[in-house]
Amino acid sequence: MSAPVLLLSCYELGHQPLNLAWPLAALRSRGIDAVAVDLAVDEFPRDAVASARFVAISAPCTRRCGWGWRQRSG
User: Fold this and answer.
1) Number of domains in the chain
2) Cβ neighbours, 10 Å, residue 69
3) What is the enclosing helix (H) or strand (E) of 51?
4) 51: exposed, middle or buried (Cβ count in 10 Å: 0-12, 13-18, 19+)
5) DSSP conformational letter for 67
6) Domain span at residue 18?
7) What is 10-37 written as a DSSP string?
């Protein structure tokens, strides 16, 4: 599983990670190779993280949802 864009979701209180679905669909509709991983059910993809050019982490909380962004240089 290697793609230039990797979307990671943390625990969603037993719900599907829909907060990954809309950005994944938007990226793919523009021809961008992206992969989503639900860390509540899948293991942390170390190799995918290491090879991705961009990793986004969905970090929901009880008061608001936020996306943590870090662009890899190079």
Assistant:
1) 1
2) 9
3) helix 46-51
4) middle
5) E
6) 5-71
7) ---TTS--HHHHHHHHHHHHTT--EEEE
Bridge partners, 7 (sequence order): 36, 56
Are the C-beta atoms of residues 56 and 17 closer than 8 Å to each other?
Answer: no
Question: pTM for the whole thing?
Answer: 0.72
Q: Is 1 helix (H, G, I), strand (E, B) or coil?
A: coil
- Sequential pLDDT tens for the chain (74 residues): 557 999 998 876 667 778 888 999 999 999 999 999 988 888 999 999 999 999 998 876 655 545 555 566 65
What would the two tokens of residue 37 be? Answer: 């991983």
Helix (H) or strand (E) holding 47: helix 46-51
Q: What are phi and psi of 69, to 5 degrees?
A: -115, 135
The encoded tokens of residue 35 equal 């992969």
Length in residues, the chain? 74
Q: Which of 3, 2, 20, 13 is nearest to 67 (CA)?
A: 20
